[in-house]
Structures are given as C-alpha cells and as structure tokens.
C-alpha cells in the first residue's frame, strides 16, 4: 500500500472536527440512490419516472470509453468506493468540518494504492492512471481532487519536473506516500497572474551554504496556497534567486515550512485565507518568510544550478526561456482545470436533463401537463450545452494525450491556455443554465447543481485568468500570422489555409452542409483571418502613432481577446473533426452520426450567439438566419437521444441527485 | 414601538444556535471598515489607496437621491444600525446559525418601529418607507429582507389586498407587530410557475361552517414556503376552493399552522427544504394538510365570498379575471426582486471598481505596474455593467412609483414581469463579471461578491422563471400588435410608432448621434417591429398547419422570448430617456451629461452583444462596427467618473469589503 499512515493519523488529529469522525452522523436521506441502485441490480435502467426506454441509437458503453479514454475499471472502482458514507456529499458544514472531511476522504483514496509510483515512473500509463483518479474524485468532491492535485500534481510535479534525477529519486517516493506532504507557493498577495513579478527573495549565502528566504513586504506574502494553512509540511517555493548580488529571476526550491507535529518551523508564519465561495475543503493559506535558511541542495536544479561557492549556471540561454520551462507544471494545471470543468458540466447536464425528462409544467387545458424537455424553448436551453460538452471533451482528449506524452512545447502552452479558458467558461454557462432550468430545485444544495456551480467558479481565474489566457494565445500566434503576411502572403503552419484566400471566400455557405467540417472550418477561418488581419493593422497603426508595442497591445485588448477566441474555436473544431474522421475510418458509424449532430449544433450555436461573425462578414445576414433556424432543428434532432447521451457520461446514480430520479418520492412526507 | 417582544422571545428560544447569542463571538477583523470610517470622520473621503481625488463632474448627493428616490435619512439610519456587531456579515455558519442570526437581526429592525402602520395605511409614503427599509436591509443581508418581505409583504400584503376591510382591520395590526407571524403558501412541489395548477383543496363544509383543507397527493405539498419550517404561526394559503361540489379555482385563506408555542396545529405537518445555494437565513419549508378545518371568515373575501349556507359569489365576471387580480401581490414581489437584484449589482460594482482602481498588475518593464482600471480591456468588462445599472435603476424607479401608487393594471403586470427578468439577469452577469475581475479576491467570502452572487441567483427563477416571464410579456403585448395589423396597419398605444414605418426606415444611423434617444429608440423599434411581425406570421402559419394556438406559441418559444426581450429593452429605453428629459427640464445639466453617457454605453453594449439586431436588419454591418467602437469610446469617456459613480450608490464602507479599501493592510501579518 505504501501510504504513510503516520501522516494521516496526525492530520486527522489536527483537523479538529469531531462531527466528522462518525461518517454516519446526520447522513442525508439517500433512499433515492438506493432505489436506483436496486433497479440497476435487477437489470432495470433507473430512468427518470415516466420515461419509456427507447433503444439507444449508439453504443453508450463505446461512447463512454471514447469520452473517458482509459482506466474505465479504475474509475468504476472509485465510484464504487464513493458509496462509503464518508463520501456522501454534505452541504451544511463549517470550514473545519469540510476540511476534516477532505482529509478523511483523501486517506481512503490514498489507501487504494492508486498513487503508488504514479508520479515517479514517467510513463504515459502512469499519468493516465493519476489523471483518471483525480477526474473520478472530481465527480464526487472537487475540494478533494484539488487538495490531492496540489500535493501530487503541483508540489510533486514541480519536484519531479524541476528537480534533477537525484532529487526526484530522493523525494518522490516520500511525496507519493504522503510522508512528505506539500503545497505549491507561487502566487503572492500582490502577484497572481503576473508570476514573474513575485517579490519573495532567496539570497544565496556562501558561508552557510544556504538560501536565505524572506518576504520583503506584505504584498509578497504567499497567498491562496492550497494546504498551507493546515496540512502541508513542505512547499515548492518560487522566489527571486539572488547570487552574489545578481538577481537570476524566479526559481523553485523545496522548503520545509512545518515540523512533523504541525508546528511552523522557525522563520515561517502561516495564516488562513478563510471561507470561499466553494472548495472549502482546501485549507488555502498565506505564508511569510523571515530569514529562513534553505539548504543549497534544495534548489530544484534541473534547469539552474548554484555551486557551493556561488556560481550560477543555467541550461537555457535566456532567463525568459528558463522561466517558460519552469512553468511547464502550470500547463498541466490548466489541463486539469479544463478536465475538472467538464466533469462539473457533465454532472449538471445529467441531473438537469433527467429532471427535465420527468418534470411536467403547464399543458393543454384539461389534459396532462407537458414534460419540460418536450418544450422547444427548453430544448434550446439544455441541448446546445450538451452538444458542446461532447465536442469539448473530445477536443480536450487531444490535449490530455499531448500532456501525458510530455510534449511540452509551444502548442501545449497555447492549447492548454485557450482550452482552459473556453472550457471553464462553457462549464460556467452550462451550470448556470442547468441551475435555472431546474427552477428552485436547481437552487437546492442536495441537487448538487448550485454547489457545483459555486465550487466551479474558481476555475475561471485560477491557473491563469481566462481573459489573460486568451491574450496569451494571441500573443503566441500573432507572430506566425505576421510572418506569413510579411512573406508576400505565403503562410506556413496553422495559417496556411490563407494561401488560397480565394477558395475561402468562394465557399457558398447556403449550399454547404451545415454539419460538415467544410462549413465549420470555413466560418471559423473567415473570422480568424479577419480578426488577425485587423489586429495586425491596428497594432502597427498604434506603434506608428508613437505607442510602445506593449501599449499598442493593451489598447487593442478587446480585439486581442476576440482573435484569441477565434483561434481557439477554430482549433477546437479542427481537432473535433479530426476525431470524427478517425472514428469514420474505424467504421464507428453510429458514434459518427450522433457526434456529427453534436458538432453541427455546437457550431451553429457558436455562430448564432456571437455578433462577431456577422460584423466581420464571416457570413451573411441570410446565412445567419439559417444558422438560427438550424439551432432549433438540430436540438429537435438530438432530443430523442438526450437520455442516452447523458448516460454515456458514465456517472452512477449515487453521484447524481434526487431530482435525477423519483424526486416526488424523495420529498414525500414518509421520508421526513 | 408596538413590536411583539413575546414573539421574538419565543423565536429566539426556538432558533437554537447558542453561538449566535453573543454577537461578538468570532467577529471577523473589521479594522479596514473602522479605518475608513475614521477617515470619513476626519473629512477625508476613504478612496482606495493611491487614488487621487478628482472633483466629481456631478453632484454625487443629488445622484444618490435620484437613484434612491426617498427616505434618505431612514436609509442612512439603518446603515448606521448595521454597525452593530449583530449585523456583521459571517460566512462560516451552519443553517441553524444563519437562521438564528436572521431572527436576531429582524428583531433589531422591527424594534426601530419602522413597520408601524406601514402596511395598514395605504399611502404612497407608507409603502415608500416600507420598501426603503427592505432595500436598505437587502444591502447587508438578503436573507433578512426576504424573511421580512415574506412576512410583511407576501403574507401581510395578501391579507390586506385580498382580505376585505374588516379582515384587514382585524389582522393587519397584529401582522405589523409580529404578533401574528406568517408565511405565503402558494407554490407546491409539483407546481411552481404554473400556479393555476396547484392541487391543495379547500372544501366548504356547511354543517361546521369551515373549509376542510387537504393535501391530496405528494406533489401538492406546499414547497419553498419561506418561514414555514420554523418561524411562521400563520399562512396565507392558496388552495382550490370547492363549494357544493363545484371548483371555483384558486383562493386565498388565512390559516393557522402552528400554536403560539411553535408546535404544529393538528392536521398540519411541516418539513425543512434544507440547505440552498444562498438565502440560508430563510427557513424555507414544506407543508402538508390533513383535514384541517379553517373558519368560514378566514377566506380572504375582497374578491370572492362564500355565505354560511354555501353560496359562492364573486366580484369578477370570469375566473381568469379574479385569478389575475389575486396575483397582484405577486407583481409587488417582482418589483422587490428587481430592486433587490440592483442592490446586489451595485454592491458588487462598488467593491470591484474600487479594487480595480487600486490593484496593479503587469506593466512596462522596469516601471511601476499598471492599475487594472487603466487597462482598456478591464474597462470594457466593468464599465458597461455600471452604465446599465444606472439605466435600470432609473427605469425601475418608474415601476416602483407605479406600484406604490397601486396602479394594478396590465402595464404593472408587463413591466414587473419584464423588468424583473432583465434586471435579475443583468445582476447575474454583473456579479459574475465583478467576481472574475477581482480574481481570487472575488472568490473570497469576506469580499462579499461571491456570496452575493450565490444568494442572488434565486432571483432568476423565483417570483416567476425569467424565461416564462418574458413569454408572459409577449403574450400580453402581441394582441395589441395584431390588432393594429388587422386594422389596416393603424396602430394604437405602444405600437403607434409603426404608423409611420417609412420614418422609422429612413433614419440614417451613421449620421445620428449614438447617445440620442432617436438612435436608441430607432434601433430598438426596428428590432421589436421585425420580431413581432415575424412572430405573428409564424403563429398564424402554424395554426394554419393544424396546431392549436397553445402549440403554435410553444413551438415558437425562442421567437416569443426574443420578442418579449425586444419589447422590454425598448420600454426601458423609453422610460430612461423620459427621465433624462425630466432632468433636462429641471436644469440638471451635470446629471443629464453623465447619465446620457451611461445611456449611450448601455445602448451600444446592448446592440453590440446581440446577434439579433444584425440578423433582423435593425442595423447594417457597418453600423455594427461603429457600435462596437463606441462601446470602447464610451467606456474611456466614463473611466474618469467611475469612482464618483459608485460612490453615488451611497453605501458606507462597512457595507463594502476589505478589497474596496486598503486590502494590503487588511491582509498584513500584524492582523492575523
């Protein structure tokens, strides 16, 4: 098993919430989940009440495997573990209770041995197992997967990626076993997105062969550090490295912040970040350093080294390059955030769509009331986000594979930034729509959607503010566009579609199949090309008028973001249609058919919801009217499949909510 | 004072959360608020750190009075009362604690005597005082104003509006003094928006001269009833009235549900609705009735009467008319919801804009970092919702006046439905934007924005689901359009602008001042006219194809909502420009100038964010490009005024949050 029981014994004693010790205390009524499970055991699918089962038009098991990619049995076994009363969601708890429960749950996950050697042995399989674990946990308790992700992924990931092989061999086993429990100290009160500007200093002191770490001002206190308030004994500290009076920029160190008994080490002060909108199982904290001495060999030295007598060496030519490499673990963070966002969206959709299938309201006078899902207006609220969720999951799977294969280049940076931004905003709007679609029941904690929404919200700004991430995308891609432009309009790579601009212009959308790749890519490319051309011109104009290139960029912020979004939308549709053609070549006709419809609805809705396509002439007002009609047509075409589509997300009943099943019985007087 | 101490003594004993008894227990650090108050006392405005005070371009006191309308001293005195430790916001509490604290706070508000005769004497002034009180309370604790609003407004309002004069005289004094504490039992588990379909029955029993009330099935349990789980002794019950075997539809009754000691009366069972996303200070509950006998004279008989021997009489010709009249108190509910939404939006904007003025991030290499509010991209995120908030507040003020004057007609219904929908969605997007704009600090509970957001969310679906409310608007307005259409294109009332269609078509937007009423009304009218014409045609076509008119309406749901939204957007801009010309005629040039800019930005942003204007030809792609540029231009023009604009909302420091002031000091180690 190789899990440090000592660590968890200590933590459970420190996280002092006696009410958590007894996992059955005040357990909410879960009869609805037991009823559904009993049906399943009897071979009856637990459809929402009154729903007649139609034969699915596609193999839901195959679809689930396409979405989840790997480790299906592991995922199912974790879902099974979540039947343990310790994992039952609770919604009326104090910070102390939530934090204690998170520790208690972590122990149970760790005890399964799933993390053993998962981080040390850098195989694709190891990473897949690790990510499948965090994703499964994310479906029951997002605080818990974040708490574990901070320790294994951010802290452990920094040690393994930034430390050299010796350092990895020395510390990683203890990190996997939780003997060394850590956090990730990058952001400060004064510096969140602008990580380069952090102010904590680590000054190499030759006589003592240590780095002296200090918090020079209040804005330099480490802030939002998950695990820092209570559980972490160690941290991966990012600080400005000074050697012989020269600043070499931000570097990572492995630093002890607490003794094993939980008391802070001398020179370190910790504080609480307090209650948040969600994720309250994570004890985010603040850290101040005062002349803390860190041994020389605790500089994580894969990229930079300091010799005993104070010589600084670095594997990279420029400080920017080195800094870029040291942020690789953040790309992984964004992949996880995007994956987490989709999990919350899938749960919200499953719950809301099942409710919409059974809940009735209004109807013809004297007749039975109509099911919500049979109202076209209701369909246009929930089915488009469902379609987009399928598209985005398949797109994200490309990014996950890239990350698992450790392709750490520029593409990973652009994809992870762009996908994290658009996917987390998609989850936000989806959870909001599902919450409203369920009316008051959507506002009730036990139905999960509202708490999922509050908890998910942080995804929009952590691991990079979404707006800034989109700007990052444009910053990375614009030079490529400008290069082609300057090269007499001969474009390479992504923009090579512009080498035949006439062909792009010639496509007649009114006669092109709106479900085809041709249609989607044409509209997206027209928009992207128009925006990048305008942006390049605007920046040039502003520079000619005397602005610095930074000012010119900042003063074009709206256009910069629009261009970034256009690029990411296009990338996504390229990757999605690539998946479709892979499936086609494998003869998966059923999957291709249903996913083509999802892609068509996603595309139509995207075009229909943004003025920018029309404003930039990517399509005509007449085309726009067709697109608008298509949204409703595709919704109607997907309507018969919605139950099987959400079922293929693979979440068992006990991860869902009462309104996804027989909510009337659940609310009956006899269950008071 | 005339407040029933006995009631509150009992309630405080019943709401059992000992931690609440001591209001200073675990009080959060409020030094930031005290520092700001000390500055104010010294005559120094507590601007965000580093902000240099410019002379405001308008009188902020006059602006505040324009926004708040009346009872300025009362509002300020309540804000002063909120300095009492009992009112300090707390964010780490259980349901029991939140509920207990709400009772404790209610008592303090009631003790001020502000509700004395506020409901009984139906003067405009009385209603204004009542509403000013609830609005002020809404700025510190939304649970509390809802809790009080349910008792005084929904319960008391039903007794006073639906009861006859004798009934009012008999019960209203006890309701005002809280001697009779009540709730409002309309919605059921199975029927929320579709109130007509509720299933609770009240059958008149001649021998006993009582109505026998029953919950005939589980879906008929009263659900979401604020106050029903714990505090209410009485309820305004809505049930299907049966007399001599004939169902006369939904009628209101005054019904006792608990004895004075808090135990349920025989025949009544109550249950908890449990934890919600917010508003947890309100003990929403469920109620079942079993052969409960209600005295004959407890039928609220302003509109319908039943005689001792079972003769039913009604002041209205049709059951629909009577039902419409009995829903008048719901119009008032929607006015309050809209007002509450704007309060949350104003708080969020004040906090976020002040933070954006002091928070720095990134900047030119080697120079000081730039304040967020000086990034054009950041301005386009926060300044448009600020402008819209001013517009919507002034528009809502027209509706509030109408409601206070008791103009209970069709216009009240349409305005309250439409404004509630668009204003609550506006608050949703504003709170979301402010939360993201503040990064992690926006996710932190003590900074208020995230909890305001969670709490506000219910506004989107209670007192009518927003989508259904927009459909309601269209349903009410479409016949007027069709009438004009059938009358050879001679329109009356609202649509009379269509009598000169050529003039509407002729306006050249490219040469019209985009800040003018002409510009705004032209674009909005073109859209409205196009949508209503299309809707009328589509419904006609569907009916011709064999659908019932209900089916035709439902199958045009997207168009129906679009038309409703177009109507409400137009109404709002008409009312806003009416306010502007009133101000102009009063010589308020400064206010007119700044508000004209707010209106211009609101209009430009509205057009720029919805495809529908372009798709329906309300403006050309070239005009759309101008509008898009104008959004940024107007933002830049408003930028110098943002601090004074949020200051004119009139919220004192202790209602705001640490990040609105010196958040670095607030987070300093010395304040741990």
Automatic annotation (TrEMBL), chains A, B:
Active site feature: 463
GO biological process, one term: fatty acid beta-oxidation using acyl-CoA oxidase
All copies of domain Acyl-CoA oxidase C-alpha1, residue ranges: 329-477
Subcellular location per the Swiss-Prot or TrEMBL entry: Peroxisome
The keyword Iron is annotated on this UniProt entry: no
List of residues binding FAD: 187, 226
Ranges for domain Acyl-CoA oxidase C-terminal: 522-656
Recorded family membership: Belongs to the acyl-CoA oxidase family.
Name of protein: Acyl-coenzyme A oxidase
Source organism: Chondrus crispus (Carrageen Irish moss)
Lineage of origin: Eukaryota, Rhodophyta, Florideophyceae, Rhodymeniophycidae, Gigartinales
């Amino acid at each position: 098993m190789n899990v440090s029981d000592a660590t968890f014994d200590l933590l459970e004693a420190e996280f002092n919430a006696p009410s958590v010790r007894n996992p059955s205390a005040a357990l909410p009524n879960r009869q609805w989940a037991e009823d559904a499970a009993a049906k399943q055991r009897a071979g009856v699918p637990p459809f929402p009440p009154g729903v007649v089962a139609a034969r699915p038009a596609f193999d839901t098991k195959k679809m689930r495997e396409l979405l989840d990619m790997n480790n299906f049995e592991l995922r199912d076994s974790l879902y099974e573990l979540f039947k343990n009363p310790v994992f039952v969601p609770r919604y009326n708890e104090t910070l102390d209770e939530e934090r204690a429960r998170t520790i208690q749950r972590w122990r149970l996950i760790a005890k399964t041995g799933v993390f053993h050697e998962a981080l040390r042995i850098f195989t694709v399989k190891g990473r897949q197992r690790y990510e499948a674990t965090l994703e499964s946990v994310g479906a029951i308790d997002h605080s818990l997967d974040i708490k574990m992700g901070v320790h294994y992924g951010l802290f452990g990931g920094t040690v393994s990626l930034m430390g050299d092989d010796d350092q990895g061999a020395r510390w990683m086993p203890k990190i996997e076993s939780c003997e060394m429990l850590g956090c990730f100290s990058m952001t400060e009160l004064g510096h969140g997105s602008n990580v380069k500007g952090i102010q904590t200093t680590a000054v190499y002191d030759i006589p003592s062969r240590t780095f002296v770490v200090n918090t020079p001002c209040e804005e330099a206190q480490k802030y939002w550090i998950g695990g820092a308030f209570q559980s972490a004994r160690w941290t991966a500290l990012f600080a400005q490295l000074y050697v012989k009076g020269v600043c070499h920029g931000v570097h990572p160190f492995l630093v002890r912040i607490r003794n094993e008994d939980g008391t802070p080490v001398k020179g370190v002060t910790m504080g609480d970040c307090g209650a948040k909108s969600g994720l309250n199982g994570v004890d985010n904290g603040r850290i101040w350093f005062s002349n803390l001495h860190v041994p020389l060999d605790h500089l994580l030295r894969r990229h930079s080294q300091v010799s005993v007598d104070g010589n600084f060496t670095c594997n990279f030519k420029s400080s920017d390059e080195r800094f870029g490499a040291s942020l690789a673990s953040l790309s992984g963070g964004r992949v996880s955030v995007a994956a987490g966002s989709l999990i919350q969206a899938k749960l919200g959709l499953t719950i809301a769509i099942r409710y919409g299938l059974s809940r009735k309201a209004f109807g013809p006078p004297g007749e039975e009331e109509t099911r919500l899902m049979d109202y076209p207006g209701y369909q246009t609220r929930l089915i488009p986000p469902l379609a987009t969720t399928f598209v985005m999951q398949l797109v994200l799977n490309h990014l996950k594979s890239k990350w698992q294969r450790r392709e750490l280049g520029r593409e990973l940076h652009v994809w992870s930034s762009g996908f994290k931004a658009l996917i987390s905003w998609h989850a936000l709007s989806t959870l909001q729509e599902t919450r409203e679609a369920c009316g008051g029941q959507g506002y009730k904690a036990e139905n999960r959607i509202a708490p999922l929404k509050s908890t998910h919200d942080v995804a929009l700004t952590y691991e990079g503010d979404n707006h800034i991430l989109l700007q990052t995308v444009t910053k990375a891609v614009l030079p490529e566009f400008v290069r082609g432009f300057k090269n007499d309009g001969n474009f390479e790579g992504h923009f090579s579609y512009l080498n035949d601009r006439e062909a792009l212009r010639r496509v007649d959308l009114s006669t092109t199949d709106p479900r085809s790749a041709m249609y989607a890519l044409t509209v997206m490319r027209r928009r992207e090309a128009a925006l990048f051309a305008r942006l390049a011109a605007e920046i040039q104009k502003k520079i000619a008028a005397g602005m610095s290139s930074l000012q010119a960029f900042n003063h074009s912020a709206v256009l910069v973001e629009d261009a970034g979004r256009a690029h990411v939308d296009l990338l996504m549709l390229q990757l999605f249609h690539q998946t479709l053609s892979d499936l086609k070549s494998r003869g998966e006709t059923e999957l291709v058919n249903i996913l083509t419809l999802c892609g068509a609805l996603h595309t139509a809705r995207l075009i229909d919801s943004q003025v920018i396509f029309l404003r930039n002439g990517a399509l005509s007002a007449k085309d726009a009217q067709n697109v608008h009609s298509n949204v409703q047509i595709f919704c109607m075409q997907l309507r018969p499949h919605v139950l099987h589509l959400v079922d293929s997300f693979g979440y068992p009943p006990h991860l869902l909510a009462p309104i996804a099943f027989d909510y009337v019985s659940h609310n009956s007087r006899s269950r008071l």
